[in-house]
Amino acid sequence: MIEIEGNGTPKDTGEEKEYLTEDEIFAEEPEFLKTKLEPAEEENGSQFLQPSEDKGVSQALQPSEDEGVSQFLQPSEDEDVSQSLQPSEDEDVSQSWAPLEEGGRQNRKLTEEEPVRPSGKPAGADGRHVPMPDGGYAEEASYRARGDLGTEKASPKNRLEEIEIPEVMLEAAMTQEQPARRDMKSKRKKLPEKKQRDEGVVHSLKEYKDKLSSYRTKKWIRYAVIALLVLVIVLVVSTTVRNWKYTSYSVLVTDTKEDTLSFEYCSVGERILKYGVDSATMTDRNNNTIWNVSYTMQSPAVAVCGSTIAIYDKNGTNICICDETGQIGTVSANMPIVKATVARQGVVAAIMEDGDNTWIQYYDKSGSNISTIKTTIDSPGYPMDLSLSDDGMLLAVSYLYFENGTPKTRIYFYNFGSVGQNQMDNRVSGYEYSDTIIPQLEYLDSSTCVAFREDGFTIFGGAQIPEERKEITVDQEIVSTFYDESHIGLVLNNEDSEKAFQLIVYNKNGREILREDTDFAYQEIELVGNQIVMYNKSAFCVYNLSGIEKFNGSLNDLPRQFFSIGQNRFVLITEDSFNLIKLG
User: Fold this and answer.
1) Which of 76, 324, 445, 492 has the fewest CB atoms within 10 Å around its CB?
2) Which is nearest to 385 in space by CA: 336, 333, 451?
3) Are strands 478-483 and 524-528 parallel, antiparallel or unpaired?
């Protein structure tokens, strides 16, 4: 710490002292500034430095009588103050009195003759002393106190500036503050450059809207890129799985206690229906029982729509209606049943024979007869096949009749809703085909029906009044047909190729999506889970709808029945076991 002795000599005490910052100094007006400078009673040069009776720090700033500095501040005794401030007649006013700049600073050049203040700087160089006519300088503060340099009252900060502090003390104070300031600067967060700060500032509503639009665009671009990457990954994985070829299969479940000779099996989604002459059982794919129903039939047959099943006695009179929860209805017919079909809600339509007449009976699941349609061989013909729409509102029937010895086919559509109530026998539309037989009808959904002809197929569409939408004709002989809810398939005799058969698959609008040659000698074919499954007594073959042969291999056991219950899972029924197998 630097201390000033009585004679003005600085002395280093070796102690450190904390100094107030500029903000802390001006937080409150110092005590020593509260002392007002008042002029002395005598009108001489010393009156400019006389303090009031309550003397404060200003008295400490008065130089002693023996110091040389006072000679610059004290006018002679016999000189009038008003005269002492007047320049001599032969003195150039422009040289003696320089005009003041802002803040009281002089704008004139300093000469070698000008006296120097105790601080070591030329007097008047900083505007804190006013030059006197005798070559001395008086403090500007004393003029302000008297009102000679203006009536404006100095602020505490300005009054601090008017106090002369020795340069040694200032330098020592600055030296003490530098480490502390460096520490504070290091702790402060560095502000960005003005250009950088302006980049984040919104100056107008238009600029805000532009930035918001840009932000949203970038956000959606990011989302689109992420979605695209996810889509690419999904496509790569799905393509790999779809085109993967298997060389073997594994047996997941085997049940050798199963009485496979007394029952028939079929798939109901991923579940398995086992039915016989006295009961039916629904099992999961691990052969665990879900439900069981009992009945008496001589020749049970099954019609399936989704998860709804109609087990009917062919050439008998009983129909048992079930779904995934068990039995939901029973129908007792008054005539022998030739064929039956079922809709998802459990309504049943059946072809029945009574001597020379044939009947179409329509029942709800409680067994109540809704409609009866009588047919003869002449009008409209003999019913070869029938199919209900998924919702049970529409019934399609294919009739065979002869005209001049030529077989012809009629297809009639019946609507059991409000549209068909005012029509005879609820018939809303009909189509005739010459020189062809249509032995098979299949509803794919509630509005799409396929009629398989000898030379192709016809697609009908319409939820109320079905109409002919698409006709597909082929030149080769049709060996087999297959379908699911969205596809229609044909197996053709491939006489002009090395491979015996040709597979053709269409979507339900009639657009071809697959044509593939194969030489697999199959006995049964089906389309399940976008896979074409063929099997014979010793092997099975699987194609996907892209024409990739997923598997072609031998079976270890002689199959009695073989069908798919889902992706790459199959049921193999032999004479003495139930087997669930999986590719891979």
Assistant:
1) 76
2) 451
3) unpaired
CB 522, CB 536: distance < 8 Å: yes
Q: Cα–Cα–Cα angle for 551, 554, 560, nearest 5°?
A: 110
Helix ranges (DSSP H) in 40-166: 57-60, 81-84, 93-96, 140-146, 156-162
Phi, psi of 434 (to 5 degrees): -90, 150
Q: If we measure between CA atoms, which residue out of 311, 392, 312 comes closest to residue 346?
A: 392
Q: Check residue 208 and give its pLDDT.
A: 80
Decide if pLDDT at 52 tops 60. no
Q: What are the structural domain ranges in the chain?
A: 2-180, 191-242
Tell me whether the omega of the peptide bond preceding residue 87 falls within 30 degrees of 0, making it cis.
Answer: no
Going by C-beta distance under 8 Å and a sequence separation of 6 or more, which residues neighbour residue 2?
A: 10, 11, 12, 13, 168, 169, 172
Give the pairing type, strands 549-554 and 561-566. unpaired
Q: 3-state class of 329 per DSSP?
A: strand
Whole-structure pTM over 0.85, yes or no? no
CA–CA dist 38, 224 (Å, integer): 82
Cβ-based neighbour number of residue 52 at 10 Å: 12
Q: Tell me if residue 460 falls in helix, strand or coil.
A: strand
Containing 213, the helix (H) or strand (E) segment is helix 205-242
The answer to whether the beta carbons of residues 251 and 579 sit under 8 Å apart is yes
Amino acid at 441: L
Whole-number Cα distances in Å, 476 to 339, 480, 504: 29, 12, 12
| pLDDT recorded at residue 127 | 47
